[in-house]
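W.,

You were right to be curious about this one. When I first looked at the sequence I had no strong expectations either way, so I just let the prediction run and decided to look at it fresh. Below is the sequence, 175 residues in total, followed by the output.
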Amino acid sequence: MSHFHNLEDGFANLEAASEWIEDDRSSSSSVVRKSVVQKPKESIERTFSEADIQQIVRQVEDVTVTAEVKCYIQNIVTFLRVHRAVDGGMTPRATIFFNTLVKCLAPLHGLRYVTPSLVAIAARKIYPHRIVPTVPDKERSLQYGSDLEAVRAYLESVTPVSIVQDVLASVETPL
């Protein structure tokens, strides 16, 4: 799995604002990318040896997750499941992958413990493609008298990425 954390994305507890810069993503659709010609499989060299993989596995097993960070992870999962714009996709399997990725990111960042920033990175990687946004007719606030047109206008601007961002901004980050 590849991973790149853009420094412009910031880190939890280190920035006053949690707004993300979208300029880079909006222009990427207009970029023409040339296809990369791959070498035949016989000539591809292995990047990681078996020993390297075993060492990374041992490092992941030694990663510490504090009670506060575990609570933070659970709060993110809970807030995503009950978000008004989410209709589904927040499966138990996604939560297992989320917890696994959180622990795997620590050694890749040279850490033996999980930080809230790593949890936020993992949430941004695991959940956006899994979230099923709700349709206006099924949005929960209609049960309590919300106007359908107002709900429709709200949901037009909501994306899975913005849902994850909203949840990360809503959940209190441990220190």
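Here's what jumped out at me. The radius of gyration is 19 Å. And, maybe more interesting for your project: The CA atoms of residues 5 and 121 lie 8 Å apart.

Coffee later to discuss?

I.
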